[in-house]
Fold this sequence. Notes:
The complex is a heterodimer of chains A (512) and B (317).
Chain A: H1 6-21, H2 27-40, H3 47-67, H4 71-106, H5 125-140, H6 150-158, H7 160-163, H8 171-179, H9 186-218, H10 226-257, H11 275-278, H12 284-305, E1 310-311, E2 314-315, H13 316-336, H14 340-358, H15 360-370, H16 376-399, H17 403-412, H18 417-430, H19 436-444, H20 448-468, H21 473-477, H22 482-499
Chain B: H1 2-25, H2 36-46, E1 52-56, H3 58-63, H4 66-73, E2 77-79, H5 88-96, E3 104-108, H6 120-127, H7 137-164, H8 209-224, E4 228-231, E5 236-237, H9 243-259, E6 263-264, E7 272-273, H10 287-308, H11 312-316
Helix pairs in contact in B: 1-7, 4-10, 5-8, 6-7
Amino acid sequence: MIFTSFEFLVFFVVLAAAYFLSPARLGWLVLLVGSFLFYGWHNPSLLPFLLLPALATYFLALQITRGGPAPPGKRFLILGIGFASLGLVIFKYADFIGFSLFRLGSLFVKSLHYEPLNLLLPIGISFYTFRMISYLVDVYRGKLPAEKHAGYFLLYVSFFPQLLAGPIERAVQLLPELKKKAPFDLQRVCDGGKLIAWGLLKKLVIADRLAVVVDAVYGNVRAQSGPMLLIATLSFAIQIYCDFSAYSDMANGLSHMLGFKPIENFRAPYLSTSISDFWTRWHITFSSWLRDYLFLPITYAVMRRIKGERFLGVQAATWGYLPGVLFTMLLAGLWHGASWAMVAWGFWHGLFLMASHLSRGVRKRIVRLSGIRRAPILHRGIRVISTFILVSFAWIFFRANTLSDAFYVISHIFRGTFSFAGKVAGRWVFSTDANPLVDFHKIMKLEPYQFFVLAVAVLILMAVDRQSERGDFWVRLKTKPVWVRFLLYYLLVMGIFLFSALKSGPFIYFKF
Amino acid sequence: MGKPAGKILGLAAAVILSLCTIIWKAPLAEDGYLQAAVLKHQLLENTRSPRFIFIGGSNLAFGLDSRIIHKNFGLPVVNMALNNGLGLRFMMNEVLDEIRPGDIVVVIPEYNFNLEPTHTLLEYVLYFPKGVKYIDFSGYLTLLREFPVTAQRRFEGFLRNWLFSQKPQNLSAEYNAAAFNEYGDNTGHLSQPGQKIAARPMGIPVAIPEAVAALNRFKRKLDQKRAFLFLGFSPIPESGFPPSTKRKALKLRRWLKDKAEFAVLGSPANFVFPDHMFFDTVFHLNEEGRTARSHRLVNKLAPALKKVGAHPRAATD
Lengths: 512, 317
């Protein structure tokens, strides 16, 4: 069931009514049954893939608490992580591992043959697996006691707004909230509704419209011109942001309506001034998960092995950082998809972060010598644009169907692009009848109307993101006069009704 | 609770009012395709009985040469077909009041045998407000569901025109109310160059219980009016009729034999035409295809009419 469907609307209204009308001690049960219904709606056979590892995690976390941080507890932790991630490894990576081994083996033995298993990937498995692993580690680290009530724990793992595509909320935050049933509050429902409406606008108006351009180009990259590849790549950067952040907004809005605090998952990521800044703004619950459960443990483990503050003249912290960040980002890539293109996406981000770390001193010197600090807007603009270009470059690997497609895009993206841009710019400057909208629509293979809608929507998105940097946009909006708010909400709802793409695709992150 | 509730209601009212205003006030294209409803209803009211009345989607609007039917049977013809999106139930409702003794009603829907309307019905009503009285309860529910999509289409049309001076698609020669002839056949496409159609296997259902139940009910109402009902089939391009589709078509025909209380004109296989006889989609025939299809209909209608004693001249021809 997807949030943008009519059946979900009916499901949510019925579930919310049952939740608020149920006695306080049974609220969790209503949400749990609702979450199972939500997950198994189209394919009930998926439920065991969620339930079995969740139950194993529940029992092993209790054993960890009994065992303590000493070896008995650690053994249960390792066992628990193994059980929790077993499904993910089998269903998501079996074919990837098998095929990679086959390719490797084919170098030595020509007659090898590989028959793909094509296993059905249970939707949301990457997200609920991470939720279970973080719970086990937090219990082991003593951040929270193992949950004794199986119902609460199952609800934490399967909480329907966050089940399919996050946010990956930690047990330490969500479990206490699940135990306290908040009373119905219409103001909270309105606040949740605003988040949902904003999510719908991003998904239906921007992401789904851009998907038409991106899918057409990336579906057959070898038939495209350089300018088209460039435009599709930049379009995908906006599409994936709108698609994914829309899901997070809607998940937050739905949770908030039911009485749960929204959790920030995106904070104007394309206004980041560096790649490390980007990762504090993009899919925040995922990046903080990677930081706490992968990056920091690896970094500290390496640093502990280095005696003294320096090794070979390099600081111990740098020795720890470099392998930590590269390994973390490679795994981040693999988490997103079982393909070498995804691994390459992670690799590039790891490389960017390493380069950023190593070049910090040089960059500071350049900034000081150039005197650009005296023009802070220009300085920030350069940093924002260069970060966006690097992130968009990495998205090529994320979106391309194969690694070879990604390399094709990179090698052809500027072929003819500059001369084309020159021609278009020349027309705009020297021709009196040139209509910029008409020119761009021709490049994007979109009708002028479609291009106009997208351009306006993206400008609105940028304005809201800019405002969000100064604090929660929706909270700040509450300080505005009532007529301003009413007008904005009215335009938001009308925008959804009047400009949604007539065909809506599934959320991109569902496949992860 | 009072304050937020008031704001929500206020916002909802403003949005609904705006959508309604857009739907009713955004200028309609003159001679829009659906405006042909006005002409068709005039024909239905004014054409003498006994007569042929054809009901269906655009396959009939584009693909019937009523002159051939008229010439062969000597009976006047009213082609009521416009768009499949009106839904079969609405199409039957809109002719029912005007059925007179001896009338021969031929229903030829597209292969989805769609009973329910889509957003097209709301646009249809904008062109032909009297059409409201033919909408039943489930039709109103559909209209409610399609309300935002209709508002979007109307607003898009308005913006396209205002910003880019783009004329709506339905003002092209082939989608134009002025292109319908004195029988209600669309002739706008006859002089237009066609497009190569991309045919996939036609999706033919093997059973259509809901559609046949509705048609059986319609047949009983026609019986009371001493009129006749026949079901025909929409054309299929050869490339969209592989053996698997052929098998489905056969199954459907057998199923209809058991369940239909009305006469069925041949089978889908009888209405397969070469791809070059199609105009722009797998539903719309070009001039050559339209002529061929009309002759095949005559061949199927003649014995069927004889069998039910619908028309003495047909029985003797």
